[in-house]
Protein backbone atom coordinates (compact mmCIF):
# COMPACT_ATOMS: atom_id res chain seq x y z
CA UNK A 1 0.00 0.00 0.00
CA UNK A 2 1.31 3.42 -0.95
CA UNK A 3 0.79 6.68 0.88
CA UNK A 4 -1.03 9.49 -0.79
CA UNK A 5 1.36 12.17 -1.99
CA UNK A 6 1.18 15.20 0.25
CA UNK A 7 0.22 18.39 -1.56
CA UNK A 8 2.94 21.02 -1.56
CA UNK A 9 1.95 23.90 0.68
CA UNK A 10 2.61 27.45 -0.34
CA UNK A 11 5.00 29.34 1.90
CA UNK A 12 3.35 32.05 3.94
CA UNK A 13 6.57 33.99 4.43
CA UNK A 14 8.64 34.75 1.32
CA UNK A 15 12.15 33.30 1.08
CA UNK A 16 13.73 36.78 1.06
CA UNK A 17 12.29 37.61 4.48
CA UNK A 18 13.39 34.24 5.88
CA UNK A 19 16.96 34.77 4.67
CA UNK A 20 17.02 38.29 6.10
CA UNK A 21 15.81 36.98 9.47
CA UNK A 22 18.49 34.27 9.47
CA UNK A 23 21.21 36.84 8.72
CA UNK A 24 20.02 39.14 11.52
CA UNK A 25 20.19 36.29 14.02
CA UNK A 26 23.75 35.41 13.05
CA UNK A 27 24.91 39.03 13.37
CA UNK A 28 23.40 39.15 16.87
CA UNK A 29 25.41 36.09 17.83
CA UNK A 30 28.60 37.58 16.44
CA UNK A 31 28.26 40.69 18.62
CA UNK A 32 31.39 41.04 20.74
CA UNK A 33 30.83 40.18 24.39
CA UNK A 34 33.04 41.18 27.32
CA UNK A 35 33.05 39.85 30.87
CA UNK A 36 31.92 42.13 33.71
CA UNK A 37 34.85 43.27 35.88
CA UNK A 38 32.96 42.58 39.11
CA UNK A 39 30.80 39.47 38.69
CA UNK A 40 32.09 37.98 35.43
CA UNK A 41 28.78 37.79 33.54
CA UNK A 42 28.59 38.55 29.82
CA UNK A 43 28.07 42.21 29.00
CA UNK A 44 27.98 44.07 25.66
CA UNK A 45 31.36 45.26 24.39
CA UNK A 46 30.13 48.85 23.98
CA UNK A 47 29.90 49.17 27.78
CA UNK A 48 32.44 51.85 28.68
CA UNK A 49 33.16 50.71 32.22
CA UNK A 50 32.85 46.97 31.37
CA UNK A 51 30.15 46.41 34.00
CA UNK A 52 26.94 44.42 33.59
CA UNK A 53 23.68 46.27 34.18
CA UNK A 54 23.34 44.92 37.74
CA UNK A 55 26.82 46.01 38.84
CA UNK A 56 26.37 49.37 37.11
CA UNK A 57 23.13 49.97 39.05
CA UNK A 58 24.83 48.99 42.31
CA UNK A 59 27.67 51.40 41.55
CA UNK A 60 25.24 54.26 40.86
CA UNK A 61 23.25 53.58 44.02
CA UNK A 62 26.48 53.46 46.05
CA UNK A 63 27.45 56.88 44.66
CA UNK A 64 24.07 58.26 45.72
CA UNK A 65 24.49 56.89 49.24
CA UNK A 66 27.93 58.49 49.54
CA UNK A 67 26.57 61.84 48.32
CA UNK A 68 23.74 61.70 50.86
CA UNK A 69 26.10 60.78 53.74
CA UNK A 70 28.64 63.55 53.09
CA UNK A 71 26.53 66.50 54.36
CA UNK A 72 25.65 64.57 57.53
CA UNK A 73 29.36 64.28 58.48
CA UNK A 74 30.06 68.03 58.21
Poorly predicted runs: none
- How many strand elements? 2
Rg, Å, rounded: 26 Å
Approximate shape:
rod-shaped
How can the largest sheet be summarized? 2 strands, antiparallel
Distance between the termini: 94 Å
Structural class: mainly alpha
The overall number of domains is 1
In percent terms, what proportion of residues is strand?
A: 5-15%
Mean pLDDT figure = 81
Provide the helix percentage. Answer: 40-55%
Strands of the largest sheet, in order across it?
A: 1-2
Order of helices and strands: HEEH
Helical segment tally? Answer: 2
Please supply descriptive tags for the structure shown above.
single chain, 74 residues, mainly alpha, two-stranded antiparallel ribbon, 2 helices, 2 strands, rod-shaped
What report would you give on this structure?
The protein has 74 residues and is mainly α. Helices cover 49% and strands 8% of the residues. The protein has helices at residues 15-29, 53-73, and strands at 33-35, 42-44. Strands 1-2 form a two-stranded antiparallel ribbon.
